[in-house]
Amino acid sequence: MGATEVVRTPPVSGVLDARSAGPTVPRMVLGARLRRLREERNISRETAGEAIRASQSKISRLEWGRHGFKMRDVADLLTLYGVTGEAERATLLALAEQSNTAGWWQPYSDVVPAWMQAYLGAEQAASLIRCFEPQVVPGLLQTSDYARAAVRLTHPSASVEEIERRVTLRMKRQQVLHRQRGPQLWAVIDEAALRRPVGGIATMRAQLLHLMEICQLPRVTVQIMSFLAGGHAAVRGPVTIVRLPGDQLPDMVYLEQLASALYPDKPAEIEYYWDVMNRVVVEAESPDATRTILRRILQEI
What we know:
This protein has helices at about 20, 25-40, 45-50, 55-65, 70-80, 85-100, 115-125, 145-155, 160-175, 190-195, 200-215, 265-285, 290-300; strands spanning about 130-135, 185-190, 220-225, 240-245, 250-255, 260. The protein is of the alpha/beta class. The protein folds into 2 domains: about 25-100, lambda repressor-like DNA-binding domains (434 Repressor (Amino-terminal Domain)), CATH 1.10.260.40; about 105-300, 2-Layer Sandwich (Endonuclease, Chain A).
């Protein structure tokens, strides 16, 4: 019924596009470097936090690129970690400065919550995005009419202007799929999401036709989790994993909720969600069957 021999997606080569990611990439690179320096010297997060007058939870957020850096804090941490060379300190302090630049989404800051900013940056710089969506078509694959209807469902009191700004932002995000060096997108969509007429029958039919077209792009793979599959590994909700080019940064796991998101970042957690995604791919219908299934659903709605 499903794809075969999916064990672990191998690293995808490429070059980080820091301009597309905004401050996200320098934050993650600097955070990863600071974490390695701290661990090499067996310094606890608590001790590091005391050095910059902060909690150990803030150190954790800094090390995983979830927070901007103050130049003074980075300088104090480098001193604590024994980094005295002028060249290395200058490089890392330059990253700290870049980490506080405005993100590409800044013009839409009124509709971009703080908890989503790290993901938006990583999405635009990614070499690989894998996702499972049980209830709606993934945002990167939505038509504008479908997106508009989906936004109304989650923001029922929003003004027409706000809804249009959210839709425009979503459409801008989709441009990453058409870049010459854009990411590989591998999406698994539950059949329920494809049969639920968000926005009405006409909007849903246009959305299904759009999926049939876009899954032919060379870097887009779409699978459908059929009702006949029964239960599956991601039954509890949507999952997205983002891989950035190179081997310096950990994969980002993004679990979006109604009004917030989780970023599980422990190595064991990241590996767990990779296992979930790999199992979902095996349990879903083959990518070769996607257009046939979409055509059948079109005839039935």
